[in-house]
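[job 4471] stage=fold_predict status=RUNNING
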Amino acid sequence: MTARLIVVYEAPSDPEAFDRHYNDVHLPLAHRLPGLRSYTVGRNAVPLRDNRPYYLIGELTWDSMDDLRTAFDSPEGLAAAEDAAELRKYATTRSMVYEATETVATAG
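[job 4471] inference complete, writing structure tokens
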């Protein structure tokens, strides 16, 4: 089982400024989160039931929910969370954390 944080960003008011801040400031902060196993960035997301455009999706993974909590209680986590407020100046965000289990599909 792993713990994941997903952040979905709607279309930013200033895409160039958002991208610059996300790539130059936010990603380097997030990559220093203790215990972070992976950080995936998704672009060109197409909503299935809603017409709101999604600009970017960030998905971060830790080994456990305890590791995720420890990461965000750390100085690095506090800095990343504080910086996330800067990104919200450009784009509406939605986020969630969850525990994930992997299932394997078998050919039937």
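[job 4471] summary: The chain has one domain: 2-98.
[job 4471] exit 0
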